[in-house]
Design brief:
Helix 4 links the parallel strand 4 and strand 5 (112-118). The protein has a 6-stranded parallel β-sheet with strand order 3-2-1-4-5-6, sandwiched between helices. Strands 7-8 form a two-stranded parallel sheet. The chain is α/β, with parallel strands linked by helices. The radius of gyration is 18 Å and the shape is globular. It has helices spanning 11-22, 42-46, 61-70, 88-108, 119-123, 142-162, 185-194, 214-226, and strands at 2-6, 26-31, 51-55, 74-77, 112-118, 166-171, 173-175, 211-213. This is NAD-dependent epimerase/dehydratase domain-containing protein. Pfam families: Epimerase (PF01370).
């Protein structure tokens, strides 16, 4: 199966690429390398699998043409998760990436789009009394949350108007190898342990976090591509 992974040189994307190649798929990575790194794809490049890496802006005409040429059965859009830059302008860019991916899928008849979004932006800070949170109970926080919610609405619009099939995953704190140091609570504490630096806990220390190991996140992404219903 031909698969395109947008953001495939990133932390999560590179692990997904490893899995897809191991399963025998042909993979095209589209990444502008603003956050990701080719070093993350060292194992994939050495695997001998059918991998092509394209240093492109996912919202560009060149990326659209590539998708038209490759005709993938599935596009993974992993470039919409939190970045170090969280300004309103940066979040506008996130929306443009989502729109560009959906337009390419519509134009070129892609069978399935799988999108990863930040769970904290979509669901805010639910109280203990409100747990477990239902999927539809979205309470976006800040500009990042509003943009994430808008992307969910955009996905639904493309499904209803253009029959673009999708699955959106709201990922919590994903951790594991290749994670950028300081990019999450696990990575921060791990770095502190390696450098014998006392970890710093904000607040009163009673906070809770949802943590998701990278292999489990990849498994969810793979299963999402196999799910035919929109969700």
């Amino acid at each position: 199966m031909n698969i395109v992974v947008v953001g495939g040189a990133g932390f999560i994307g590179s692990h997904l690429v490893d899995r897809l190649l191991a399963e025998g798929h042909s993979v095209d990575v589209i990444d502008d390398l603003s956050v990701g790194s080719l070093a993350n794809l060292a194992d994939a490049r050495a695997s001998g699998g059918a991998l092509k890496i394209h240093h492109l802006d996912a919202a560009s005409a060149e990326a659209d043409s590539l998708i038209g040429m490759r005709r993938p059965e599935v596009i993974y859009q992993l470039g919409l998760l939190p970045r170090h830059e969280r300004s309103a302008r940066a979040q506008g860019r996130v929306f443009s990436l989502a729109l560009g991916t959906l337009e390419a899928a519509r134009k070129h008849g892609v069978g399935k789009v799988v999108v990863a979004l930040p769970a904290s932006a979509l669901y805010g800070q639910p109280t203990v009394q409100s747990l477990p949170v239902k999927e539809g109970d979205l309470t976006p926080r800040g500009v990042r949350g509003v943009v994430a919610r808008s992307i969910v609405d955009l996905l639904s619009t493309y499904r209803e108007q253009y029959s673009v099939e999708f699955t959106a995953l709201a990922l919590a704190t994903v951790y594991g190898p290749r994670q950028i140091p300081g990019s999450g609570v696990v990575a921060t504490f791990h770095e502190a342990a390696l450098t014998s630096t006392p970890p710093v806990f904000d607040g009163d220390g009673r906070q809770t976090r949802d943590l998701l190991y990278i292999d489990d996140a990849v498994d969810a992404l793979v299963r999402a591509s196999e799910r035919r219903a929109n969700s």
